[in-house]
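Quick check before the chapter quiz. The format below is the same one you will see on the exam, so make sure you can read both the input and the output lines.
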Amino acid sequence: MTFLAFVSILAGVMFGIGAIAAMSRIIRGPSILDRALATDVLLAIAICGLGAEMAINRHTDTLVVLLILSMFAIVGSIAIARFMAKQDAS
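Here is the expected output.
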């Protein structure tokens, strides 16, 4: 087993543990903000996982997917922040 294969497996395991923790917070989260933050974390894990896969396999085929996921994360965070601000105002 090469060093790159070992690091790839280790990164996959760490991303998997993080994704499971984020999914449990989405399911059990007591408030909408907990669920929103966990969704942002899950999107960040997906972005990092795709970026690591691109670096390991030395290609840029999924770069568009990375950009779209980033756009969804930003727009979703802004939408939730505006929604919560309107709820606090009333």
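If your answer matched, good. The chain has a mean pLDDT of 93.
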